[in-house]
Here is the input.
Amino acid sequence: MSNHTGDLTISQPPGCTENTVTNETPPAPIASTKGLNADLVFKGVTAAFAFSILVILALMALEMVKESLPTIKAFGWEFINSSDWNPVQDTFGALPYIWGSVVSSILALALATPLSVGTALFITEIAPRKFGGVVASLVELLAAIPSVIYGLWGVLVMAPWLQQTVQPFLIEHFGFLPFFQGAPYGVSMLAAVFILMIMVIPIITSITKEVLLAVPQSQREAAIALGATRWEMIRMAVLPYGRSGILGAVILGLGRAIGETMAVTMVIGNTPQISLSLLSPAYTMPSVIANEFAETTSKLHASALMEIGLILLAVTLVINVMARLLLWGMTRQAAGGAK
Amino acid sequence: MNPKVKIDKLNVHFGQTHAVKDVSIDVPENTVTAIIGPSGCGKSTMLRSLNRMHDLFPSARVTGKVLLDGGDIYDRKVDPVSIRRRVGMVFQKPNPFPAMSIYDNVVAGYKLNGRVKKSDADEIVETSLRRVALWDEVKDRLKNNSMELSGGQQQRLCIARTIAVQPEVILMDEPASALDPISTLKIEELIEELAEKYTIIIVTHNMQQAARVSDYTAFFYMGDLIEWGETKKLFTTPEKKQTEDYITGRFG
Here is the structure.
């Protein structure tokens, strides 16, 4: 017996002696106590880190609600229903900003979605594997470009091109439509739509690519064996299988577009107006916050910016949750379909 | 009688691997030919070369001839899509399209021919599902999602989808290996019935299954065709020692 306990103490790492003191009868499990304690500490620390994120988010939301109470009390629903934004007279209506954000983001997505899905299909279904990989990493590189660079390019290169070439062309040939009326300014809703389109393409493309890669090969083979061409296979087996995932990718792109600040501020013209014409300048929620926070004229003005921020936060949260749910449903379906 | 499918000195390479070596088999019309052999012996690879499925994988190289009614399907002028409409395929795991209803799954391939009248589609769906003995089980829920069905029902749905295109030859790659015994039995009965109208080539792991359903059997080992002939003869008086060892369970 004594021989046995002797073995135990030898096998114990030196740091464990404290534990042996506190325990009256220290047989077998002693050797693992150190690992257990370290595990508990590790668990506690990581849990604290994870929890702190939630706390920060909750505190932020709480603070924003608190700070925007003055305008919520003063204007109520009128805040999101009125176009009158006048810091000098302390009247605030955020509708032009909401309009600008929603319209620019949705139009950008409408243009970016087919381009992105097409690119993802090219990468996964059509290009030779190596070449597809090169294209995929180039597209992902686009996502790494800082948005101020996009904005600079937009305002120095794209806006003049729009002003001198694209917008006069649109006015001349499609001027009868309400969307292409007015003077060519260059900086405009159209410029913001284009910039946002370029900026969301990498996100939608890379997520769609992952979604398409998750489509089981057996689905493609099923379509091919029925005598489908490559395009028919994509339409019959690949896209339907990935549809919820692709929708999730698009919605994540929407979240990115609606929160984009810098590039949009630089090209949209920053004029709070609601116009059907894509040629006229507009304004978005993030842009007005970025432009006015440093020179708030009154407490109410600061509160109005805070409430816009609150609306923006709520919208992006809802959009992201929706996207995650769709992507989650997609992976669950992939797991279920494999049975 | 000319064979429906004549495999003539067929070789398949995957990169450095020589998966199918110089194989020649004649498959008569309206018969069931079983391909047996241990795992990795090249039997699935052989099967997939009969409707040019290897075209999907650039690493596969097929040489030799596969004659369908006397015409080489690997002829450069032949469109592989047209071959696959004549030579259908059923896979190991049931793979219905999960985003489609039962009805839409059955007509999925048929619709590739162009616009389809609703009445024609209805008829195709009913006859195809009746032929695979699934009609009575699903006729009241044709618009429901195909993933509601059990594994065996899904596999029969996949067979219905294949015959809806009205192929001449049906390739089956271990069609019952993922199914329970009762579903397996149903698939086997189905194969015998289908042989009245179609030429069937089936890869199977299960020797009893080969003995039960097939008219001809080919035994593969390490990419070589060891022996082929009438099933009864191959299972009772095999010519080669290797075949005898395999069917008596001495290896494999």
Q: What stands out?
A: The two ends of chain A are 54 Å apart (CA to CA). The interface with chain B takes residues 128, 216, 218-229, 232, 236-237, 240-241, 243, 333, 336-337, 339 of chain A (CB under 8 Å). Residues 1-23 of chain A have pLDDT under 50 and may be disordered. Residues 44 and 178 of chain A are 60 Å apart (CA to CA).
